[in-house]
Write a structure and sequence with these properties.
Layout (H helix, E strand, L loop, with lengths): L1 E4 L2 H4 L5 H9 L4 E6 L3 H10 L4 E4 L1 H29 L5 H26 L4 H8 L3 H10 L19 H9 L5 H10 L6 H13 L10 H8 L9 H9 L7 H13 L1 H19 L5 H11 L5 H9 L1 H7 L7 H16 L6 H9 L3 H12 L20 H7 L5
Parallel strand pairs: 1-2, 2-3
Helix pairs in contact: 2-3, 4-12, 4-14, 13-14, 14-15, 18-21
């Protein structure tokens, strides 16, 4: 059986369905063609190789699903952050700081309006008040006093371990050195200062006996919410990796993420079932999975489901047959990187030279090593070893591990 991977950089120097169709007609022995979700290439394959079976590439299927899930995660995480921002300040000191900051902004805003009324331009106002011109223009455009909100917490290396530190602290372990050793054993790579700074917040949370709250309220006021510093891409990565490959702190973050919203729990179950079809080639479960997606009414999945229905035969083949071009995507990515390094202006002839051309000096060097006898005779045949113990071949194959 002969098969091919259809793509603009592999088949033809032209990004057109016509050129792909012409290339396929020159290879009438093709029986299987693996491709992405492009409708143009699907049409070109039907015209150029009607005898071939079209197979959706599993790498692209997972990639398309990733985009939908990432949108759902970004929406939910944004809702969690907005809910956190609407929460009242936890201490009177924080409230006073916010009120003082807001009063200063109000005074600046009124000063800006006074200067604008006098005919002063925004550039001169910026120099007078020591502010950026863009900020002043934005404040004027809004037409209202800019509200001073609490700053969003920035992600740090200690964030995934805060839950563990909180738990150990309330178990009675208050030794910073001991807790640092435990975190290092769990893979913490940050500085000791990050640990001790967080421990200081735990110390400060102890209230006087007369003002102590109930244990439940105290726990809710101290326990960190790791989801507030989690990006959509990080959350997506947790959804698509095998749970047994996650570190303990990543498993805990994933558990909190799934419990944060009923929609996220449903999304995780749908992702898990689809990845099972991809890995185990159980395409016969596709119809059942599509029904579950429609029942869930998750809008983020609708684009993916629509694409699957339009290309169902090829998707079913991709989830059933062994044909796929995941490792090839590594080489395609390399070609795109070379093209972008020339600011996207590389035509096919130049791109071909960059990829395939070898100078005479390089050819002579290879010929020299090829004819050399001894332990270094096959140096060029071995892939280059990277710092982490992997090779370039591992890197290319690793791109398609999920699929």
């Amino acid at each position: 059986m002969t098969w091919s991977r259809v793509g603009p950089l592999i088949c033809s120097p032209l990004r057109s369905a016509h050129s792909v169709e012409a290339w396929l007609k020159q290879h009438p022995s093709l029986e299987v063609v693996s491709r992405d979700g492009s409708s143009e290439y699907a049409s070109a394959i039907r015209k150029g190789a009607p005898q071939a079976r079209q197979v959706s590439d599993r790498w692209h299927l997972v990639k398309n699903l990733t985009a939908c899930v990432s949108a759902q995660l970004a929406k939910t995480l944004a809702q969690l952050r907005r809910a956190e921002e609407r929460r009242p300040a936890r201490t009177q000191a924080v409230q006073q700081v916010q009120q003082a900051r807001q009063a200063e902004r109000t005074a600046r805003y009124e000063h800006i309006l006074d200067l604008q009324t006098q005919g002063v331009k925004s550039g001169e106002i910026a120099r007078t008040l020591g502010m950026s011109q863009r900020t002043i223009q934005r404040w004027i455009a809004t037409g209202t006093i800019p509200y001073s909100r609490r700053k969003r917490p920035r992600a740090s290396l200690i964030d995934p371990y805060k839950s563990y530190l909180w738990k150990r602290w309330h178990q009675g372990c208050h030794s910073g050195a001991q807790l640092e050793r435990e975190l290092r054993a769990k893979g913490y790579k940050g500085s000791p200062h990050g640990i001790y700074r967080y421990l200081e917040t735990l110390k400060a949370s102890k209230l006087a006996p007369s003002k102590q709250k109930s244990a439940a309220k105290l726990a809710s006021s101290i326990q960190p919410n790791a989801l507030l510093t989690l990006s959509a891409s990080q959350a997506t990565w947790l959804f698509f990796r095998k749970e047994e490959d996650l570190k303990p702190e990543e498993q805990e973050t994933l558990r909190q993420l799934r419990q944060a919203s009923p929609q996220l729990e449903v999304a995780y179950q749908l992702v898990d079932e689809f990845l099972h079809m991809v890995r185990e080639r159980t395409g016969e479960q596709l119809d059942s999975w599509l029904n579950k997606v429609e029942t869930s009414q998750l809008q983020a999945f609708q684009t993916f489901v629509t694409g699957v229905h339009k290309d169902k035969d090829a998707v079913l083949a991709g989830l059933t047959l062994p044909w796929s071009t995941g490792p090839v995507e590594g080489h395609v990515n390399r070609l795109k990187l070379i093209k972008r390094s020339m600011y996207g202006r590389a035509e096919f002839d130049l791109l071909k030279l960059r990829v395939l051309h070898q100078s005479k000096k390089s050819q002579d060097r290879k010929h020299k090593y090829k004819n050399r006898q001894g332990p270094q005779a096959d140096r060029l045949k071995k892939p280059r070893m990277l710092k982490n113990g992997t090779t370039s071949q591992h890197t290319i194959i690793g791109i398609s591990e999920v699929a």
